[in-house]
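Quick one:
INPUT:
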């Protein structure tokens, strides 16, 4: 059953991404977007299959969205994060097909965008592999015996999944968008990430045993040696 739910979840996610890209473009004649969506679907399917075999609890955690126990502050931060992702995707076709406020990327720089996106997706999947408590909402999962995760990629930074989102949005805009869409998407994402991380760490410091010690041990939130 979890395999079926995961497949349809990935299919639904890919359809949403298609809407965020093609609807603002007002055209289906966009081969670069089709290639991106195809790669996204393939990577997500393969990575999810691996996790379903090796660590299905991580997939279950991502599917668990308990809005009733979600704090109001976190609900607002979640909405802001989702809005930042939508803006990050939609600004690319808006500027490419309509506003033309800046030039698009080309050549090797453009191709680098796909590499950045793939790296971002791998970071997200590595985070899920390391942390089986990474739900979409901030709450302490006492019934599952939640503990501090400080191994793997979490030994370097405290929020590697959000680092993955940065590479995701950057890669999409370098591959599909313009300088304008890249800069404004990253500004919007930075605002959303700051709000989300502050609320998440406030909850974890208050309610999760050992998280304060973990923060002293792993000083950087998103980028090693920088932030």
């Amino acid at each position: 059953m979890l395999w079926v739910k995961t497949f349809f979840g990935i299919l639904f996610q890919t359809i949403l991404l298609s809407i965020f890209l093609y609807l603002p473009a007002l055209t289906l004649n966009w081969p670069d977007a089709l290639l991106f969506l195809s790669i996204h679907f393939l990577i997500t399917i393969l990575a999810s299959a691996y996790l379903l075999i090796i660590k299905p609890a991580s997939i279950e955690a991502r599917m668990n969205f308990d809005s009733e126990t979600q704090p109001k502050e976190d609900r607002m931060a979640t909405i802001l994060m989702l809005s930042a992702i939508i803006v990050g995707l939609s600004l690319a076709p808006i500027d490419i097909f309509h506003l033309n406020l800046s030039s698009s990327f080309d050549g090797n720089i453009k191709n680098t965008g796909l590499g950045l996106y793939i790296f971002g997706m791998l970071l997200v999947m590595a985070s899920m592999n390391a942390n089986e408590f990474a739900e979409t909402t901030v709450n302490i999962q006492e019934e599952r015996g939640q503990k501090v995760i400080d191994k793997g990629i979490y030994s370097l930074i405290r929020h590697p999944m959000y680092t993955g989102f940065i590479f995701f949005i950057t890669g999409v805009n370098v591959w599909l968008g313009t300088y304008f869409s890249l800069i404004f998407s990253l500004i919007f994402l930075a605002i959303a990430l700051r709000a989300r991380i502050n609320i998440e760490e406030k909850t974890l410091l208050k309610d999760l045993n050992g998280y304060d010690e973990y923060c002293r041990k792993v000083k950087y939130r998103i980028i090693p040696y920088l932030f």
